[in-house]
Design goal:
Blueprint lengths: L9 H7 L1 H68 L7 H5 L8 H5 L11 H21 L10 H21 L13 H17 L4
Helix pairs in contact: 2-5, 2-6, 2-7, 5-6, 6-7
Length: 207
């Protein structure tokens, strides 16, 4: 036999079903809280992703600028040292020193732990910087020659070629590193000068 409805007021109804109502409300609040937590996690992940993308773009564009400057300086050193090597005049340490000026790669050193963010381009960037560093070290060793007033033309020529090697490799890397500013990307001019320098050595190798 069905029990007759005897709740005459809303308060009586709530009092009787308070456990069920509390459970339902708890479920709703819990579901909302869980949804909010998921939304917070998704928002955080998206924010971190955008942060990484901005960081990668900053690293890439900064390295693009510095690498172009370093390549231009290395090319200048290659040209000046080559002229010394074939001048036919005695070569002094001071002459060598005045033929190359390559400041340390500040951005590359500061971004060393982020280079990996460049993906497949990371290795090429590191190779260019290492080649330039090897050439710089070679030039600096000439400054401590036992005969500082008569440095071997062959040694000077080899150092010039070391700088040129770095520049040749750089010409294949620069196009993939964009600065974001068109006037800073004079890659065609750099490539043309590098090819001219290479042509000299191909026609007239050092003795």
């Amino acid at each position: 036999m069905t029990e007759p409805w005897h709740y005459t007021t809303t308060l009586e109804l709530i009092d009787h079903w308070q456990t069920l109502i509390a459970g339902v409300l708890g479920f709703i609040v819990g579901a909302l809280g869980f949804g909010a937590a998921i939304a917070a996690v998704v928002f955080t992940l998206r924010t971190e992703q955008r942060k990484k993308e901005r960081e990668l773009e900053a690293v890439r564009s900064s390295l693009a600028v510095e690498l172009r400057q370093s390549t231009a300086q290395a090319l200048s050193a290659a040209e000046l040292l080559r002229k010394l090597a074939f001048s036919g005049e005695p070569i002094t340490a001071r002459m060598v020193e005045s033929s190359f000026y390559l400041p340390p790669p500040v951005i590359f050193q500061a971004s060393a732990d982020k280079i990996g963010l460049l993906g497949q381009d990371a290795m090429d960037v590191v190779i260019v910087y290492n080649l330039i560093d090897l050439a710089r070290n070679g030039a600096e060793r000439l400054l401590t020659s036992r005969t500082p007033d008569d440095i071997s033309a062959k040694s000077v020529g080899s150092t010039a070629q070391a700088f040129l090697t770095a520049c040749v490799y750089a010409t294949s890397v620069l196009p993939v590193l964009k600065t974001g500013v068109a006037k800073h990307e004079q890659d065609a001019k750099i490539t043309e000068k590098v090819q001219t320098e290479r042509a000299f050595w191909q026609k007239r190798p050092p003795k």
